[in-house]
Amino acid sequence: MKNHISTYLAVMGLSAAACAAPLATPPLAAGSVPEPGTQLLHTILHPSLSILHSHLSGLPAPILAQVALPEEPAGTPSGQGKQGLRRDALVVIGKSVELAAEDTADAVVAIGGSVTIHGKVTGAAVAIAGNVTVHGEVKDAAVAVLGDVNVEPDALVRGDAVAVGGRVKVAEGGTVQGGTQEVDFGMLGIATPEWLRLWFVECVLKLRPMAPNVGWLWGVAGGFFLFYFLVALLFPRPVRACAEEFIERPATTFLMGLLTKILVPVVFVILAATGIGLVVIPFLCAALIFAGIIGKVALLQAMGVAAGRQLNNSLLQKPLIGFFLGAIFLLVLYMVPVLGLVAFSVAGVWSIGGVVTATFGGLRREIPPKTGGQQAGPPGLNAGLPPSDSAAFTAPAGDASMASPSQSLAPTGAVPPVTELVSHPRASFWERMGAGFLDTVLVSILSAVVGGPPLGFLVALAYFAGMWAWKGTTIGGIVLGLKVVRLDGAAVTFPVALVRGLAAAFSVVVLFLGFLWIAWDKDKQGWHDKIAGTLVLKLPRGTPLVCF
Fold this sequence. Notes:
It contains 19 helices and 19 strands. With about 550 residues, it is α/β, with parallel strands linked by helices.
């Protein structure tokens, strides 16, 4: 029984020898009152320890010697001893870390800071964008990325010392039992300069394109600002046209930029596959670069002018003043961690979208509307009618079925001209979703026949784009009486239908938000409708949609 009790006390970290001695309560000073916790513990433990004393008092000395634990030096905090603190892996981000001489750690890692070791590391010491300085002992490797490894006198590194973009410096008296490895950047084999390390720490790790304490970045920003300012002076008309698009159609310009970013790689692949298109790719790249520059200047100008309009300040609405104000605002956003990277990405996409939207808008304005066919009708048919009335008897050019005004007076059942189609109500969200469901079932069957993705996607794109260009609707639209028309009255050509199909795919990718937009948009347009400039109308019963 006594042996079992002694073993139990040894496992629990208690000294059997101490328990074998008579329990003594430290005397209290005169007039003092014991603390409640101390009195309670004494009351509870005293009977138990007395019983243990009675059982252990007769143990032989060898057993007591085996059970007894070494005494800790006086004045040493419990759990610390002469060895100092024992730590697990020590990891810090955005600052330096130092291990004291008495401490031990399994590993020490600093991201965006330096590591200084005075104690002992049983694993590795790693610094990313900082230096590793060893005064004590590192049992594994000492690694510095974009920094130096310094092994001071009397220091010991039992593993390798590796510096990526830096130097390994071993002082006299320092020891590296493993190998030393220096991995340099650049063709000249020089170490990474301090300015690059500072940029990595302040910009890359903090996810922002600008930092207040990186001086050379301010010089780069100043150069870009002067260049953009010259562009604003030399090309005022295109910059102003794009700026107006940003102000009037912020969502459309952003979506157009996002669609352009998605389509450009696809276009490059198609051009490269043709072989002859390789000649076009450099010119297309140059056009995109120029568009990005014009769009960036216009975006800065639009932000300043929009702020001036909100504040009702005519001075801020001047183009150059607005450009300065927008540049300052965007620069402040660039210096905010994480938000700076988001603003940089959004500005790049938005800039391209504004230029593309303004370009298509300019092309539509450059093409004069053709109203041919008036002379084909009876003389004086449109005479005396106001423009709004006479327009009802005109038709878009290129549509032979609507070339003469007499066809606007055709018997019931004929397809009305686009100008009359626009007068019909917009298709509701649920009507369009019903037609989309029918088309999805049909396209799924066709996709299964060709083996599914990626050919299935091409089949779906060909189905929708072909049907819209051919008949202005799909099978689901025929069932529910829906028709796709353009806002400018022109026919839905295949390029327009292709852009609408790709934009519809994007509306699906973003969690169907582009289609949900129909529910609350005043014109019942989805994102793909806004990008392609189309409407979906609900035609009355009896209007044929399929005419061969």
